[in-house]
Write a structure and sequence with these properties.
Elements lengths: L1 E4 L9 E6 L10 E6 L15 E9 L4 E2 L3 E10 L8 E10 L6 E13 L7 E9 L14 E9 L12 E9 L4
Parallel strand pairs: 5-11
Antiparallel strand pairs: 1-2, 2-3, 4-6, 6-9, 7-8, 7-10, 10-11
Length: 180
């Protein structure tokens, strides 16, 4: 038979005695085994820290859009962690998808880098930028071709962030010819 002192359950880090008694008489007297339950890393639990990531990326008007339209690009960014994030930045980028070859080419950063002083746990903020689907170069030519693009929002990582692999979110945007 065996008995735990104190009775289970116990808190992490608390010492526990396991008293083993041999009912068959093979062991002489009670045998004590001392156990200590500990956390895996002897430090903070893995759930403590900021956890910053984009949770949405939307266009207004929605894709597909007509060349010449101004598109509002919005992203909601959330801290699902348990601590304040500290300062971070948000950037938007656009990439051209060549549907024939399957290649993806960086086109441009959209707008300026947005700087945020930080957000508390369970807080969501919004970052946005505008995309002119017919921004013109010096010669007056639209700089964006008709076709499919990837728009990406990138949130910088912050110190002690729980998951640094989920700080980007992408979605497709199609630019079509305007109706005549």
């Amino acid at each position: 038979t065996s008995k735990y002192e104190p009775d289970l359950p116990v808190k992490l880090g608390e010492s526990v005695k396991l008293i083993v008694r041999d009912a068959g008489g093979l062991l002489k007297g009670p045998n004590l085994i001392s156990l200590t339950l500990v956390t895996a890393d002897q430090g903070k639990p893995a759930t403590e820290g900021p956890e910053l990531h984009p949770v949405s990326l939307e266009f207004s008007p929605p894709s597909p859009v007509k060349r010449g339209e101004i598109v509002l690009i919005r992203s909601r960014i959330e801290n699902t962690g348990s601590q304040f994030t500290g300062p971070f930045t948000v950037d938007f980028q656009i990439f051209k998808v060549d549907t024939t070859s399957g290649t993806i080419k960086f086109v441009a950063a959209l707008g300026e880098t947005r700087h945020f002083p930080g957000i508390d746990p369970s807080v969501t903020i919004e970052a946005s930028t505008l995309l002119d689907t017919c921004a013109r170069d010096a010669s007056g030519t639209c700089t964006l071709e008709l076709g499919t693009y990837i728009v990406k929002v990138v949130v910088s990582t912050v110190p002690n962030e729980l998951d640094r692999t989920n700080n980007e979110l992408s979605t497709l945007l199609t630019i079509q010819a305007p109706k005549k």
